[in-house]
Design a protein that fits this description.
The chain is an alpha/beta fold. The protein folds into 2 domains: 282 residues, Purple Acid Phosphatase, chain A, domain 2 (4-Layer Sandwich), CATH 3.60.21; 175 residues, Alpha-Beta Complex (5'-nucleotidase,  domain 2). It contains 14 helices and 29 strands. Strands 1, 4, 5, 6, 16, 17 and 18 form a 7-stranded mixed sheet that branches. Strands 8-9-12-13-15-14 form a 6-stranded mixed sheet. Helix 5 links the parallel strand 5 and strand 6. Helix 4 packs antiparallel against helix 9 and helix 10 packs across helix 14.
Amino acid sequence: MGKPAGINTALLSLLLLGAGACAKKEQIVIFATGRAQGRLWQEAAQGSARNTGGPAVFKSLYDGEKLPKLAVDTGNWFSATREGRLTRGKSTLACLNAVPYSAAAVGLEDLSLTPAELQKLSESSALPLLASNVYLRTNTKPPFLHSSRIVEAGGHKVGFFSLVISSPTAPNRRTYLPKYKLEKETYDAQRAIKALKSEGAELIVMLLSVNPGEEASQDFFRGLLAKLPRIDLVITDEPAVKKPFKAHRAWIAGAGLEMSSAARLVLTLDQAGKMTDLDWKEIELNPEKYGEDQEILKLLEGYRKSSASHFSRRVGFLNAALPLTENDTTPAADFAADCIRRWARTNAAIISRKEAAAGFSSGTVTLGELHSAFPLGSSIVFVKIRGDALERALTGLQASEISVSGLRLFVRDGALDRAETETGPLRQEHIYRLAVPDSLVTGRENPLLSSAMEFANSRRSLRDVVGWCFARQKSFSRPAGGRIMQSGDK
């Protein structure tokens, strides 16, 4: 009878050992958001009448999590809403601190802030701002930004660093921005990973912010990770990453975007604290399901009141309505083209019709209406160009997508047939001075930029210039014959 009992004891010991090994597996949760872009409160979900989103809902979701947890953000804090632009990101960072988040990365759009503005934003935040590959134009690291950070969750050290990717289609190149320099991704990533490992990080997580104007394919992620030491997880704001995938033993997963959703990443760890599995889910920030945190609502109420006061200010008056579209014309965009031409004192002006998002009713024009109508924040660029080069550049633009002032464009079968100034045909050898938004001259293959003799950015926003016009002009000029006509019209 003793022998069977001995066998049972051995089996029991093995079972207990196996159960102990299983019990040593642990999980931690990382909530990830990105591209909030100034969205501070609930908005109607696309295709739904139900309100959703906002940091107050996220805070309630975060507080309800039972597993050890962290929250991270991939940047781009203010560009999409007038409230965000007003505070230059401070309101978004205040909400991140109130949750509190453990790591936040600077995004490409945040680098439109001057170093002084970004330093002020950093100093107002209790949360260190990560920007591993961002340098000043002087080739020095901004002292107010951080290359890496280690935080603890469930007794494990999690190391974070961040990269800003200007162009995933042209990776690993040094890029010069107006106020900063982006070093090659691999150079600073390798340095950050080495520093985190030397400081005892058990898990290495990269926060990857991609230029919102471009798309990063899976090949981009694979190419980047092939050049780096092993890391555990990449969290990115790239919308094309619909579900997690693996490359070079690292998981790549998307963040919840625009404060309408949050990504919940459950990391399973083995006995040594190494990541063995990832469970990912995108969670809609539904206030009916998760509620709203009252402290963040109080914080937001202050921003809401100051925003309402600021944007109710009068900037001008219109004798008649200025619609976004009217028949085949775009009065709001045409008005803006006239404005920048008048302000810049140039021969002509050209803008994209996409600059205008809304029109204006007659009567008082407020600052809020101005921001809603011209949300992009483009700045005015001065261009010097010869007449023949200008005509070639206009041929490279879609006449149906632009508004002009000081020019008449004649179109045949959808393509430019010829262009004239107010005094007659373009003169090939003559030097013309143009005013255009910088959004019209971005990209290597841009016809205006590649044809110009000189160009200079005024750093004055199109929105401010249109406001300047509203203070001085109460009606919209419609030139006889129109601005863009079918060839053969007189």
